[in-house]
Structures are given as structure tokens and as C-alpha cells.
């Protein structure tokens, strides 16, 4: 059965489906020796597909839950030679990459896989998968500020989707110097959590992602990872089948 080229590339772990489309448009893909740039092309299992003249391998999909430490880049490589998430997977032979990103100075739960189709589903905004963050912020947000977070605040000229908030810690003697706030969002805009707290006048000093959908860090420590169980992968697919 023939399938779209970008879908086959994604499943082979080349990149997400959207990134695979960009690779095709750039003329970096050959099918049976011929350069293709059209996104609508379909390929069969017998076709030879090359990216940058390297044949793509039909790897078995793998899935990992990773506790990303701070000061680590959520990319496969880094032009500034900073430590990347890949440095923590030396024994994994498959061509894995992160699902979405966490900022360089943000720690927490990050999924790693070579399944481009699932990556595309999980990062697509229409599925609205909840992500839970714990932020240490400057000062204590006012009631009005917390209400704005729950209703949506303007960042980069666009209002954020409603969020859930919970104060985890706020006491520091008679004067509140810092507060720890739990924030649940389903969007994935660039630096979104930091910009949301900045918008209400309480800049983030420290940030961690503690939950992704139903997945939590459990007993993992920074820099550790574990394979996802089949039931967990199936549940992620069910969440994005709706």
C-alpha cells in the first residue's frame, strides 16, 4: 500500500511529519534515485528513499520518558557545542529526538522517540494535551494576576488559552519574596510559561515541567530516563485519536 512520503519519513525517525515536509521542499530527498520536492507524492515499501543521499532505515519505534536537567538543549545537535539531550542516550542506537522542547534552563519531563507520526500528533495544537509546570516566581502573584492566568493573558499580541493555577508555596517570613505556582496549560508556544508570568509582573526564577498528559516523572532523577510501557504508548495514541 502506498503512503505519503512525509509520513514514511516520520515513521522512520527522520523527523516529525511537518519537518519532513520542509526537508522534501528543500530538495534533500530522493526516491529511487530521483529528487522529489512535491509533498503529495506517495511511495511503496519497495521504494528506496534517501535523505541527503543516505538511505532511511525502517527502525522499530522506541519511546522514552526523560528527566531533562537544566542547562541542556532540547535538540539533537547544538551549534554552540552545549550539552544536548542526546548526550544522555549513548546506548540507544535508534535515531531518536525530543517531542517538542523545553528551554535550556528549564528542567523536567521530555518525551524522546523516533516515531514521527506520534510526535506530530502530540505536538499538534488541536489535541490540547495538558502539560503541568511548577514555577518559582518573584513575589506573590495578586488575585487579579492569577485570574488573568486562568482566563488568558496577552503575550506576543495573542491571548493565551485558559490555564489552571495552584499556589504550592508562598510564605517567606512576613514578606513574600518568592512563590511557587503550579500552572497547567495545553498550548506549546515559545517560552509561553515564562511570558505568562512576566505578563502579570512575576518573572520566573526557576521552572520545571512535572507532567505531560497522564505521564509524570515518578522516581526519575535529572538525567535519567525509562522506556515507555506499551500501555502508555497506546494511551498516548488514544488521546490523539479523538
Chain-wise SSE layout:
Elements: E1 3-4, H1 5-11, H2 17-25, E2 29-31, E3 34-36, E4 42-43, E5 49-51, E6 54-55, E7 63-68, E8 97-98, E9 106-113, H3 116-123, E10 131-138, H4 143-151, E11 154-155, E12 158-159, E13 164-169, E14 178-185, H5 192-199, E15 204-212, E16 215-216, E17 225-227, H6 230-239
Parallel strand pairs: 9-15
Antiparallel strand pairs: 1-4, 2-3, 2-5, 5-6, 7-9, 7-17, 8-9, 10-14, 10-15, 11-12, 13-14, 15-16
Helix pairs in contact: 1-2
What report would you give on this structure?
The strands form 4 sheets. Strands 7, 8, 9, 10, 13, 14, 15, 16 and 17 form a 9-stranded mixed β-sheet that branches. The radius of gyration is 20 Å and the shape is elongated. It folds into 3 domains: 53 residues, RNA-binding S4 domain (Structural Genomics Hypothetical 15.5 Kd Protein In mrcA-pckA Intergenic Region, Chain A, Roll); 88 residues, Alpha-Beta Plaits (2-Layer Sandwich); 83 residues, Alpha-L RNA-binding motif (Alpha-Beta Plaits), CATH 3.30.70. α1 crosses α2. The two termini are 25 Å apart. By secondary structure, it is α+β, with helices and mostly antiparallel strands.
Amino acid at each position: 500500500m502506498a503512503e505519503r512520503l512525509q509520513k514514511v519519513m516520520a515513521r522512520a525517525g527522520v523527523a516529525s511529519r511537518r519537518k519532513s515536509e520542509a526537508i522534501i521542499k528543500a530538495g534533500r530527498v530522493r526516491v529511487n534515485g530521483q529528487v522529489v520536492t512535491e509533498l503529495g507524492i506517495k511511495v511503496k515499501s519497495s521504494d528506496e528513499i534517501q535523505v541527503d543521499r543516505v538511505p532511511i532505515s525502517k527502525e522499530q519505534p522506541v519511546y522514552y520518558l526523560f528527566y531533562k536537567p537544566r542547562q541542556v538543549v532540547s535538540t539533537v545537535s547544538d551549534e554552540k557545542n552545549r550539552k544536548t539531550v542526546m548526550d544522555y542516550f549513548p546506548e540507544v542506537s535508534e535515531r531518536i529526538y525530543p517531542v517538542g522542547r523545553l528551554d535550556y534552563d528549564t528542567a523536567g519531563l521530555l518525551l524522546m522517540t523516533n516515531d514521527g507520526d506520534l510526535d506530530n500528533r502530540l505536538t499538534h495544537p488541536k489535541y490540547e494535551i495538558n502539560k503541568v509546570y511548577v514555577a518559582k516566581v518573584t513575589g506573590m502573584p495578586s488575585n487579579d494576576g492569577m485570574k488573568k492566568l486562568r482566563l488568558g493573558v496577552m503575550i506576543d499580541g495573542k491571548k493565551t488559552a485558559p490555564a489552571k493555577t495552584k499556589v504550592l508555596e508562598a510564605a517567606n517570613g512576613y514578606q513574600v519574596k518568592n512563590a511557587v505556582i503550579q500552572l497547567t496549560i495545553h498550548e506549546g508556544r515559545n517560552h509561553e510559561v515564562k511570558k505568562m508570568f512576566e505578563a502579570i509582573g512575576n518573572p520566573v526564577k526557576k521552572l520545571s515541567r512535572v507532567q505531560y498528559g497522564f505521564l509524570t516523572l515518578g522516581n526519575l532523577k535529572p538525567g535519567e530516563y525509562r522506556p515507555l510501557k506499551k500501555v502508555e504508548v497506546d494511551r498516548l495514541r488514544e488521546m490523539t485519536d479523538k
